[in-house]
Amino acid sequence: MNKNNNRILVNGNHAVAYGVRLAQPKVVPIYPITPQTPIVEKISEFQAAGEMVVELMTAESEHSAMAACITASLTGVRVFTATASQGLMLMHEMLHYASGARAPIVMFNVNRTIGSPWGFWPDQTDSLAQRDTGWIQYYCEHGQESLDTVLQAYRVAEKVMLPAMVMHEAFYVSHALDIVEVPAQEMVDQYLPDFNPLHRLDPEIGESWGNTVNQEMFYRHRRDLGLAMESVINVAQEADLEWRELTGRGYGIIEEYCCEGAELVIATMGSMVGTARDAVDNLRKEGVPVGLIKVKLFRPFPFEAVRQALRGVPKVMVLDR
Questions:
Q1: Which is it for the CA torsion 308, 237, 8, 34, positive or negative?
Q2: Which domains does the chain have, with CATH numbers?
Q3: N or C: lower Cβ tally within 10 Å for the chain?
């Protein structure tokens, strides 16, 4: 551990808030929803204590919060928001607009069941339903990974100019206490430089967004968006490698665990990985050749990395939540 880093006992949502504080966004549009609310509450506490210089915008809905994120991002400032479940559903229209506008927003979504029936349990359906909105998607196993991934997400999003969504599960991670290492601000500043985009809404520059275009221009724009998404794999790997060099912690785009010689591999993501890892350990002790793949980066999906990890494996069991 770096001597300038702090180790604290916090829940997963507060770990996210510490990551956001380190990223130093200038605008945070918010709308509360269980079980995400502690993230923005903690950010509000940081602002009140003078630990963050940030404009908190209390919107009337999640849809409006994302609309505010887009316009703020297009002025050239770093932006953050958080949501969960039905809130993410309500944002759906604006998620497409955010990626089409190439606005590198980072949003944390706490995975929770979507109605009906009503529930508050860990369920990744809310974010999986946004797979094709043009957002990068990361899934985290625990609070430390959530903090670290917020910073990596900004690094990647601002490099490729696409928005990024980071996830962990309701309650199992969001409200569970764990020891988390908070990196020093100087280290994060070295890793994540100030956001200063070439193109932005500025009267002195005179650019605009959202104009009606013909079919050729629309196709060209969507093609460029697709190419940017394809580039995320390499950019994410580089961002993770540099973070590992700085902190000693890295997660990769996937994690292979005991896959060598495995006759069955469990593939999953999020907090289920910890349980699956224990199951693999116990089965290995019994002589059962089982392995595990943790999918960290879900969108874009790391097809080649998964193919390599599963080469020669006769059986795969996919665990969805």
A1: negative
A2: 6-192+212-247 (3.40.50.970), 254-318 (3.40.50.920)
A3: N
3-state secondary structure of 268: strand
**Residue position matching structure tokens 């590198």:** 104
The radius of gyration computed from the CA coordinates of the chain, to the nearest angstrom, equals: 20
Handedness of CA 144, 182, 28, 210 (dihedral sign): negative
Cα atoms in the 13 Å half-sphere on the side-chain side of 301? 7
Pairing of strands 136-139, 297-299: antiparallel
Secondary structure in 3-state letters for 27-60? EEEECCCCCCHHHHHHHHHHHHCCCCCCEEEECC
What residue spans of the chain are helical by DSSP H?
Answer: 12-23, 37-48, 62-74, 86-100, 125-128, 143-160, 185-191, 215-247, 272-285, 303-309
Nearest to 229 by CA among 305, 304, 161: 161
Helix (H, G, I), strand (E, B) or coil at 265: strand
For the chain, what percent of residues have pLDDT higher than 70? 99
Predicted TM-score (pTM) of this structure = 0.95
CA separation for the pair 213, 219 (Å, rounded): 10
Tokens, residue 140 = 């985290």
Average pLDDT of 180-193?
97
Q: pLDDT tens-digit profile of 224-253?
A: 999 999 999 999 999 999 999 999 999 999
Phi then psi for residue 214, to 5 deg, are -80, 180
> How many alpha carbons fall within 13 Å on the CB side of residue 117?
0
Confidence of residue 4 (pLDDT cuts 50, 70, 90): low
**What SS3 class is residue 203?**
coil
Task: Tell me the CA distances in angstroms from 50 to 5, 46, 54, 150, 318, one per residue in order.
Answer: 20, 6, 9, 21, 46
